[in-house]
Amino acid sequence: MEAHPLIAGRRTREGFRDRLGYAATLLSVAVILVAVAAIYLFVFSRGLATFFVNHVNVLDFLFGTEWRPTLTESEGGPKFGVLPFIVGSFIVTFFSALIAGPIGIGAAIFMTEIAPSWGRKLMQPVIEILVGIPSVVYGFTGLTLIVPFLREHAGGLGFGLLAGILVLAVMILPTVTSISVDALSAVPPEIKAGSYALGATRWQTIWRILMRASAPGFVTAVIFGMARAFGEALAVQMVIGNGKNMPTSLLEPASTITTVITMNMGNTVAGSVENNVLWSLALLLLLMSTVFIFAVRWVGRRGRLMSR
Amino acid sequence: MTAKIVDRVMTAVFYLIAALLVVLLVGLLGYILARGLPKLSWTFLTSPPQSLSAGSGIGPQLFNSIYMLFLTMLFTVPIGVGGGIYLAEYARPGRLTDTIRAAIEVLSSLPSIVVGLFGLIVFVYYTGWGYTLMGGALALMLFNLPLMVRTSEEAIRAVPHEQREASLALGVSRWRTITDVVLPSALPGIVTGAILTAGRAFGEAAALIFTAGMSTPRLDFHDWNPLSPTSPFNPFRPGETLAVNIWKVNSEGLIPDAKEVSAGASAVLVIAVLLFNLMARFLARVFYRRMTAAKL
Fold first, then answer.
1. Of A72, A113, B15, B273, which residue is most buried, by most CB within 10 angstroms?
2. B254-292 burial code (b ≥16 CB/10 A, e <16)
3. Residue B109 backbone class (left: φ over 0; alpha: ψ -120 to 50; beta: rest)
């Protein structure tokens, strides 16, 4: 008896299709694996060239405070100190998370505890649209709204770390909120019911029960927000003023790792020291992003252990 | 009694925070649209940019953005759905699957500028293409694959297991079951995921500066031959998108009306984002109705 044409056998056409389909999906996954491996490989090999090919001292690079890549050797040699940019990156990341963290978590609590029906229906699209707005539009708004405002009310040029912090805070707010909502939704309702049954008010339940139960989730939310802030390039570049010196106040023009790469990568010749140094900055950025990813995984694992 | 007062005060605080977010969004959209909408006209949307004087249009950039989106989705959707099928249907718990999931997680959290720099090495230098729309589309594909894979996997997993079993019990092959039974049911979720991905790709700029470039050659819109260097449809030409243009005119500051031009371009981007969002919502609802009605 002959098998039905749709039934897979090893030698039928259908069986061939079956294996071909499987191979195609495996290939799609392979694209991602190869891409991630290649990203690390290429950025590492280019980024390390500064130290192994151009023999720039790693410590001078990481802890130097002078960035003068075009200085000739008779004038004291080119200087590739990137500490001001590293500090800039950490300052904008830390402060924007400090602003967006509490507000985002608060908005998430509003959506899940205070007004779970209409509040969620209203806020969900608000957050989705805020996430969807392109970063250049945030940058442009910062440039035409926040910078002039700071110039008038805080003094200075308006361009600077503070402008970057404010723009980033708005940008990471929806990220923090939506991950916090997920964390709060995962809290078993029995725990809350138990708290209310003991006569606790809503705020007592939120503060004493929910804040503890979803603490790992909130930490994850803030780390994701920080990762986004640390890696954002264009919006920050448009408002931060691109100063090259060690920042001494939040109102001064400064730079971050990403803004320096953005500004200079196109103006330097591939293979030159000036260019390789930018790749070393990219390597720093990649390493820092990896740290954020591992931090999220670690917190997630800890959270699961705690709830067990 | 104080516990109740504290509770009331904190409730008010939470209302304030929620109101802040709504005001933020409404203010932001209102500002962009109020500044940008008056600028929008047929001439602005279709005329070419000026390099030094006022009166720039955004015609070529708008075209580049749409064409780039098309190219990006051409790669992202099949590969993303393929990855989603693998993870939902074939992957078994183990080291390989863990590695794949970790890779997707890493790729989704990498800053877009890092993906752009990778694109610069591979699609610009290594292939010898220089700045091209194709390179930009491939970089955007890498950037958007995690989202596409994740949404497709979720949609495929949501298909009831009985449907697969029924199909397999009839002797239908695994792959046929996937393509003819599972994918049609998962389609609404996949389409919603694709639209969300498209919205993200449309506004992305950092990954494109170093891959698709910041210029557009003189385009002849009557030339439809995709191999001709002046044809807008040639994927191997530099192509600055709208989002890149907003960044460029503001950071270069060569044209006197940079702010007005970017206000117009920003309004176009924001309207596009809103449309993508509405479309995803609308389609999700339509599909949902159809699917639930079909069960009756």
1. B273
2. ebebbbbbbbbbbbbbbbbbbebbebbeeeeeeeeeeee
3. alpha
Host H or E run for residue A68? strand A67-68
Which is nearest to B202 in space by CA: B110, B123, B280?
Answer: B280
Residue A241 in tokens: 């003023």
pLDDT tens per residue, range A41-90: 999 999 998 888 888 888 888 888 888 887 777 777 788 889 999 999 99
What is the C-alpha separation between A84 and A82, in angstroms, rounded?
6
Is A139:A235 a contact under the CB 8 Å cutoff? yes
Find the closest chain A residue to B28 by CA distance: A141
The answer to whether ipTM exceeds 0.95 is no
How far, in Å, CA of A265 to CA of A69, rounded? 13
Q: How far is A180 from chain B (nearest CA, A)?
A: 14
Query: How far away is chain A from the Cα of B227, in angstroms, using its nearest Cα?
Result: 27
CA distance A35 to B149: 14
pTM reported for the whole predicted model: 0.91
Contacts of A180 in chain B (CB under 8 A): none
Report the CATH fold assignment for A79-307: MetI-like fold (1.10.3720)
Where are the domains positioned within chain A?
A: 79-307
Please report, in angstroms and rounded to a whole number, the separation of the first and last CA atoms in chain B.
Answer: 53
pLDDT digits (tens, 9 = 90+) for B171-189: 888 898 998 889 988 988 8
Query: Rounded CA gap, B204 and A6, in Å?
Result: 44
B76-89 tens-digit pLDDT: 999 999 999 999 99
Which residue in B14, B29, B99 is closest to A106 by CB distance? B14
Q: Which residue has the tokens 């990762």?
A: A227
Rounded Cα gap, residues B214 and A305, in angstroms: 49
Domains with residue ranges and CATH for chain B: 40-295 (1.10.3720.10)
- Are B190 and B122 contacting, i.e. CB atoms less than 8 angstroms apart? no
Q: In angstroms, how far apart are the furthest CA atoms of chain A?
A: 90
Mapped onto helix, strand or coil, the DSSP state of residue B205 is coil
β-strand partners of A254: A241
Phi, psi angles (nearest 5°) of residue A79: -115, 130
Strand-strand pairing, A67-68 and A79-80: antiparallel
Q: Is the dihedral of CA B227, B229, B234, B238 positive or negative?
A: positive
